[in-house]
């Protein structure tokens, strides 16, 4: 049984982003000469694609490599190896000057709405930077464009001359979303955009992203550790563990009939709105393998009876 199963059926698909065998290793130095002695394998041979107009959820525990995948795809972190095909061009090895022309088409919404905005700049300036840098509209039209952006994310145009500290966390994240939309990108990485917000505010921001997805036909990689949030907004879901992909499937398929034992363990932790529903809670036992010296791909994920394997055991759910 294959650990990774992408059950997306159509062969003639309009693929915007295709990632093949992506690796991102962080070197560890040591010894008297401070030489590289090992690597943290944050992303280890990851392959997936994102269709135009599709939202792909990327889920996994903390340390699974989700954020590193998102940052590497945007070339905010340099890949160790692999290809990143964006709209027909492999951007993985493009020199930085050539990469600049893709920046307008690829944007990110950061996890922390408090740290992602310059506290010394008014919102007029924050949003104006992106418009000026990429020359989206003439200078005479920028203020109207900024007001329109604020209104698109549910804020008033009267907020132009306020500083970030005058907004709540949810409002700041809306401003972060407006900044990403300012340059009319083709692709957005939403890096855990609601994890720092209150639960009630999370729902509002997810609903906003869902509305914007429909309105602007957004293509998005939505990174989160909350599977309930991912289910609401994603068309397909990728499950990661220890830098590798365990399963890829359409959202309804994955949540109703997960294929991989690790996916089943994650889904068992999602709270049910029905307080009377009986649900088996799967507790993973044993020690988590290290990303510095992970187990072979064939045994990199928990197996029945719900424990982490120890080397040199092999997983019956081998990857091909």
Write the layout of secondary structure elements.
Layout: E1 15-30, E2 35-51, E3 55-59, H1 66-73, E4 81-86, E5 89-90, H2 96-103, E6 106-109, H3 123-133, H4 142-152, H5 169-181, E7 187-191, H6 199-216, E8 220-224, H7 227-233, E9 236-241, E10 244-250, H8 251-256, H9 261-267
Parallel strand pairs: 3-8, 3-9, 6-7, 7-8
Antiparallel strand pairs: 1-2, 1-4, 4-5, 9-10
Characterization of this structure:
The chain starts with 14 loop residues before the first strand and ends in a 53-residue tail after the last helix. The chain has 9 helices and 10 strands. β4 and β5 (89-90) form a beta hairpin. Helix content is 28%, strand content 23%. Mean pLDDT is 85; it is low at 310-320. The protein is of the alpha/beta class. It is globular, with a radius of gyration of 21 Å. The strands form 2 sheets. The protein has a 6-stranded mixed beta sheet, sandwiched between helices. α5 packs parallel to α6.
